[in-house]
Design a protein that fits this description.
This protein is of the alpha+beta class and 253 residues long. 28% of the residues lie in helices and 22% in strands. It starts with a helix and ends with a helix.
Length: 253
């Protein structure tokens, strides 16, 4: 699923897990110069560069774009010679020989639209592991793990977050990213009234979207008034879909 850049901005600006110096937005001309050396950059990473230019999420330093005269040598530049190795472009590194994060240039992920899947290389053993389906998804996954949410409250939401930190449809339906899911569940006291369920979004009109946290049925999404939350969401709510990503993708089409 294509990254929702509005939700991506909310994630970055609303999460203390990000540390950024004063925004140093990169011009389109500089981004194109960088692409002349390393190839097309994924849209959500281009957005990050154009909006913020530099920064860190957790312990991961995200590569920036350097002026052309320093493009090959500046350590933090995405065009530094060491960052491109075959079909892997390193955009993020942890300090002290920690893990590194790479765009898999030879793969097409679920996010589509020019996004590359993200893989992690272990700083000790060198093994490679999948992380996300886009740069936006990488940021969402990082925030989710730093907040103690693991990959997500259930597999369907985890799969969404690997591509985009939430999604807002034209009809007002919002599926939350990791930056606001906990707060919304606490606000409506979901753990108290419906402990086996998680509020994953809302319809902007007083109705919530609920999915199971546990058990075998963690694919169905139910709609229920936020003022009527109880343990039996399945009986009291309306079934919306059993394919969260497909439903959202159709709504955005």
């Amino acid at each position: 699923m294509r990254p929702d850049l509005t939700q991506l901005r909310d994630l970055v600006e609303g999460s203390p897990e990000f540390s950024r110096r004063a925004a140093a937005a990169v011009s389109e001309a500089m981004i194109r110069d960088a692409e002349a050396g390393v190839g097309p950059l994924p849209p959500s990473y281009r957005w990050w560069l154009a909006e913020f230019g530099q920064g860190r999420v957790g312990d991961v330093d995200i590569a920036a774009v350097a002026p052309a005269e320093f493009a090959d040598d500046a350590y933090d530049a995405v065009t530094a010679r060491w960052r491109l190795s075959g079909a892997r472009l390193c955009f993020g590194v942890e300090p002290d020989c920690g893990d590194s994060y790479h765009f898999a240039l030879d793969r097409t992920g679920e996010a589509g639209g020019g996004e590359y899947p993200v893989v992690r290389r272990d700083g000790l053993g060198g093994g490679e592991y999948p992380v996300a389906e886009s740069f936006a998804g990488f940021l969402a996954v990082q925030v989710s793990r730093l907040r103690g949410l693991g990959d997500g409250p259930n597999p369907a939401v985890a799969r969404l977050w690997r591509s985009t930190p939430g999604a807002l449809l034209d009809n007002g339906v919002l599926v939350y990213g990791p930056h606001c899911l906990q707060e919304r569940n606490e606000t409506f006291e979901v753990p108290r009234y419906a402990p086996d369920w998680v509020l994953v979004g809302d319809d902007s009109g007083g109705g919530g979207l609920f999915m199971r946290r546990h058990g075998r049925d963690r694919t169905r999404v139910y709609h229920l008034d936020l003022g009527a939350i109880d343990e039996d969401v399945e009986a009291d709510g309306d079934l919306m879909t059993d394919d969260l990503l497909g439903w959202l993708s159709a709504g955005r089409a």
